[in-house]
Amino acid sequence: MTDRVGPGAHLLVTGGAGFIGSELVRQIMARRDGTRITVLDKLTYAGSRANLAAVEGDPEQAARFTFVHGDIADPAVVDPLVADADAVLNVAAETHVDRSILDPEAFLRTGVIGVHVLLEAVRRETERARAGERPAAPRFLQVSTDEVYGDIPSGHSVETDPLAPRSPYAAAKASSELLVGAYHVTFGLDVVMTRGSNTYGPHQHPEKLIPLFTTNALAGEPLPMYGDGMQVRDWLHVSDHAAGIDFVLRHGASGEAYNVAGAKLLPNREVIGLLLEAAGRDWSLVRTVPDRPGHDRRYAMDGSKLAALGWAPHVAFEDGLPATVAWYRDHPEWVASARSGDWHSYYERQYGARLAAGRAVEQPGQAG
Ligand code: NAD
Ligand code: DAU
């Protein structure tokens, strides 16, 4: 396997203009080992060519890089790109749980139809390899999420646990996984899957908790905390998440899924406290607002399957969070661009009534 995805390989990375995809592309290209990458990205509100500036602005990397603007659900675009690839890394998805509650359709189109189009293309190339028409079949890596396990009141999810998604986003991700598994069993495709935990770091669209609260805090705007803020997430720095995906691509066993677990389980209130400290703000900005419908209370994964192969995350949350807050402070143009387009109508639809119903939150430690 290492030969097919090692130095000099040609990788097709879908969703490579997004948060995690662009970090993956930057990391692999910075190795300067001859690997070529083609990014296929639809450039939805969440994707930005600016996230790839470090690659496209470096002559040596740019010579090994191609950007294609297109949809993974479009076979006319996908088929020739897969025909030319040694491996396909599907990072593309609609990714925000709250948007999936407002409008689920795009999640299914990309997460189910799009994944099917990619798998059909990989299936064709696998058959061509079997017929001796290309040297080897492409490996397919599906980037998935801990949300497929559903709410985990206690303990830690292991890879053999049943999938129990509870939001339209998580259901689309679980559907993708089921399709990928079926193509492995039925058609013998070489597939691997990663289930990453909550990821944070530079270049994340400011709709998600950490970048939303950071950019709002820096601007002195209210922070809409859902419910009691005691929901627990397992935080993973984006550089670790991308490294975990790259590791599974090269070392994962065919047909297997791997948890890419985070370095820190924390309730949202603690994340918010650390974030306010890093932004130089206080709890007066925080509002408790009506909760997300079907809100998963806790995610927690057991990372020992990937650890047994020799992989572990490196960035401590206590270091990664302040560095992330500093990145958003230092990149106002990036933030302004991400908050353009449909941002204001989305924000009003998502938070208008919630913030109107919101209440101030007692600063921890000062409750009576
Ligand atoms: P993101 O929203 O920042 O980026 C998604 C990218 O996919 C964007 O560049 C977008 O333009 C592109 N895209 C969307 N639909 C497309 C389509 N039909 N065709 C081509 N491109 C399309 O997402 P992210 O946070 O970087 O997440 C990347 C992947 O990692 C997703 O599969 C997500 O489910 C998974 N994941 C994310 C997290 C997290 O905390 N962010 C955690 C675990 C897993
Ligand atoms: O767990 C992995 C998943 O993490 C990824 O698969 C998803 O793509 C990614 O969006 C993320 O999902 P979450 O729903 O956990 O992340 P989000 O940043 O939306 O929310 C994190 C927590 O913060 C969650 O408990 C909801 C809460 N929250 C979020 C927002 C946006 C708030 O309290 N207020 C908010 O405004």
Topology of helices and strands:
Blueprint: H1 2-5, E1 10-14, H2 19-30, E2 36-41, H3 53-56, H4 59-62, E3 65-69, H5 75-83, E4 87-90, H6 97-102, H7 105-130, E5 139-145, H8 168-187, E6 191-196, E7 199-200, H9 209-219, E8 223-226, E9 232-237, H10 238-251, E10 256-260, E11 264-267, H11 268-279, E12 286-289, H12 304-308, H13 317-330, H14 332-338, H15 343-356, E13 359-360
Parallel strand pairs: 1-2, 1-4, 2-3, 4-5, 5-6, 6-10, 7-9, 8-12
Antiparallel strand pairs: 9-11, 12-13
Helix pairs in contact: 2-10, 5-7, 7-8, 9-11, 9-13, 11-13
- Mean pLDDT level: 96
Number of helical runs? 15
Low-confidence stretches: none
What characterizes the major β-sheet? Answer: 7 strands, parallel
Category from helices, strands and their pairing:
alpha/beta
Which series of helices and strands comes N to C? HEHEHHEHEHHEHEEHEEHEEHEHHHHE
Beta-strand residue percentage: 15-25%
- Approximate helicity band: 40-55%
Cα shape:
globular
Plain-language structure description:
Helix 2 (19-30) links the parallel strand 1 (10-14) and strand 2. With 368 residues, this protein is α/β, with parallel strands linked by helices. It starts with a helix and ends in an 8-residue tail after the last strand. A seven-stranded parallel β-sheet has the order 3-2-1-4-5-6-10, with helices on both faces. Strands 7-9-11 form a three-stranded mixed β-sheet. The chain has a three-stranded mixed β-sheet with strand order 8-12-13. Helix content is 44%, strand content 16%. The structure holds nicotinamide-adenine-dinucleotide and 2'deoxy-thymidine-5'-diphospho-alpha-D-glucose (DAU). Nicotinamide-adenine-dinucleotide binds next to helix 2, strand 2, helix 7 and strand 5.
